[in-house]
């Protein structure tokens, strides 16, 4: 239920962005909101039924100024507060990202590496994925996982169904698998 409600708000926000010709700015706002929601203290404050609406709206007003949010984003946050729907914010962010990605033909890819990948390397990966996926745009999200050892793994496509494994861990796993197969074959 919350997801469908969130989708309605996300769809309306995207429509406002398209009609006001500021979809990119709103998408940047939603991205910032996602980062704010990662802060547990902020999120608990925003969704708490104990915190007065007026106090939440004051925070939204100052946050909107600091983060340079569009009026549409500030209005949406205030509407969520008024309608007692703040708990759908995380779902709304996910839904908006999906809508935005469809509208802008953007492919999301997750790049997993042992260390953060620099911007020039991410740009090269993005260009390659753009040609592989046929999407106009590619948005990369870098995930740090020390078990990768070196190199990187890229997941993209519907539900991350496509995989490019350029990691040392992946190569070691392949070698281990080949040794295991050779051992089984030798046992017969």
TrEMBL record:
Its main location: membrane. GO terms for molecular function: proton-transporting ATP synthase activity, rotational mechanism. Pfam families: OSCP. The keyword Membrane applies. InterPro entries: ATP_synth_OSCP/delta_N_sf, ATPase_OSCP/d_CS, ATPase_OSCP/dsu. GO terms for cellular component: membrane. The keyword Nucleotidyltransferase does not apply. Keywords: ATP synthesis, Hydrogen ion transport, Ion transport, Membrane, Transport. Belongs to the ATPase delta chain family. This is F-type ATPase subunit delta.
């Amino acid at each position: 239920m919350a997801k469908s409600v969130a989708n309605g708000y996300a769809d309306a926000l995207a429509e406002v962005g398209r009609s006001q010709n500021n979809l990119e700015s709103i998408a940047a706002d939603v991205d910032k909101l996602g980062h704010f929601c990662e802060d547990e203290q902020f999120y608990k404050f925003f969704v708490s039924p104990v915190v007065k609406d007026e106090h939440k709206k004051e925070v939204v007003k100052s946050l909107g100024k600091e983060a340079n949010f569009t009026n549409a984003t500030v209005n949406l946050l205030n509407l969520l507060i008024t309608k007692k729907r703040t708990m759908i914010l995380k779902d709304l962010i996910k839904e908006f990202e999906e809508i935005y990605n469809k509208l802008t033909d953007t492919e999301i890819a997750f790049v997993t590496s042992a260390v953060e990948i620099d911007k020039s390397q991410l740009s090269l990966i993005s260009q390659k994925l753009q040609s592989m996926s046929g999407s106009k745009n590619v948005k990369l999200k870098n995930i740090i996982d020390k078990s990768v050892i070196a190199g990187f793994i890229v997941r993209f496509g519907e539900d991350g169904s496509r995989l490019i494994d350029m990691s040392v861990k992946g190569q070691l796993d392949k070698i281990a698998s080949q040794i295991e197969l050779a051992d089984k074959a030798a046992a017969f």
